[in-house]
Specification:
Elements: H1 2-18, H2 22-59, H3 62-74, H4 85-99, H5 103-119, H6 129-139, H7 147-155, H8 165-190
Length: about 190
Amino acid sequence: MSKVWSSMIIISIIFAIISGNSGIVIDSVMESGKTSVENIITLAGMMCFWSGIFNIFEKTNAINVFSKKFSKFLLKLFKKNEVSESALKYMSMNIVSNVLGVGNAATINGINAIKELQETNPYEDKPSDSMTTFVLLNTASLQLIPTSMIALRTMYNSASPTAIVVPIWIVTSLSLIAGIISIKILNKKVR
């Protein structure tokens, strides 16, 4: 895919130079770079805030209480002998981050959850069923409050930044259901 995108960019630049529009290309590159940096700074602030909130939750008893309540639902999707208590804690924080729409803040907890799941992995060179199921939950997560998208829409002066909430609920619910069914079928076929 990188070859396709690289080719498209090179061909576009060549056509711009041939047609005498190289100034437009340079202006577009500069404007896009500026916009990208502004977006990154804005979203980085939100990501830092939520990462800090989850770090505080991790150091208090709140996440343990939540993990115990959430584990009744969560453990139905996993093999109990493959999920330690610490893995369950990290998985809970990851899923909550995704549900709140701050997927970037979920990354650290997802990495820690996979490390914990690897410790109980019965296969040496393959991911366990619990690992593949968790990756699916992380990727096709339900989003109740898509904060990143709402922030981006607000940043670009959308008339109704929250108009995407209900469609996101529908799409993420359907993708999560389809993903869970698929991963359960694939895990049985592969093993």
